[in-house]
Amino acid sequence: MTPFAAELIGTSLVLLIGTSVNANVSLKGTFGHEGGWMVGATGWALAVFVGVVVAGPISGAHLNPAVTIGLASAGKFPWSQVPMFVLAQMVGATLGSIITWSMYKDHFDATREQPETILGVFCTAPAIKHYPRNFISEAIGAFVLVYVIFHFQGAEVSIYSKQATTPIGMGSLGAIPVAFLVWGLGLSLGGATGNAISPARDMGPRFAHTVLPIKGKGGSNWSYSPVPVFGSIAGAVAAAMLYLHMG
User: Fold this and answer.
1) 132-148 tens-digit pLDDT
2) How many Å apart are CA 1 and CA 19, to the nearest integer?
């Protein structure tokens, strides 16, 4: 498996499981209906666990453009490979959320009178709309994610380094620790904006929502999308700069 394929499949699995737990909790007629925030946060953490298990040995399991850009900003990943990784992550995120829709289609149809609930299965939105603070929320979440990755053992090697033995990314933490990290972020920092902390996690499913023939779906709220996209990138770059200057 190539790094491109690993990132595509790994990110697809993350979004399949993540958006499916959203569907299970939010859509009418599911066994998990109204399961609550704890179920959602736990499901997303385990989704990342699955993605890391699959992609970690091959690509380092970035699974997130903010992670890729953060590593490149710190000189630990070649900028020439960033477009390939980001493309794989975006395509994977879109595919994973499309599969979720195909699986839960009957439940989407049953929820057709609630367009905001349908959109919430796919992408994030602020609990209280205030774009500057929403941006800060996403930046803080991505900062913590990437800063922890930098400090984990193995973060000094690069998949393209002559001395490398292990590719870096979220996979450098190990699947179980990174799942706990994402779980903690969701439970603590996720309450304000849903904690996308990844451009792919927001844009891929939002694009799927736009193109899929979902009954009663309403608009895709693209006006909000720059907040999780650029907020998460800003947080990742800030983590890289702090790590370079202070370790």
Assistant:
1) 999 999 999 999 999 99
2) 25
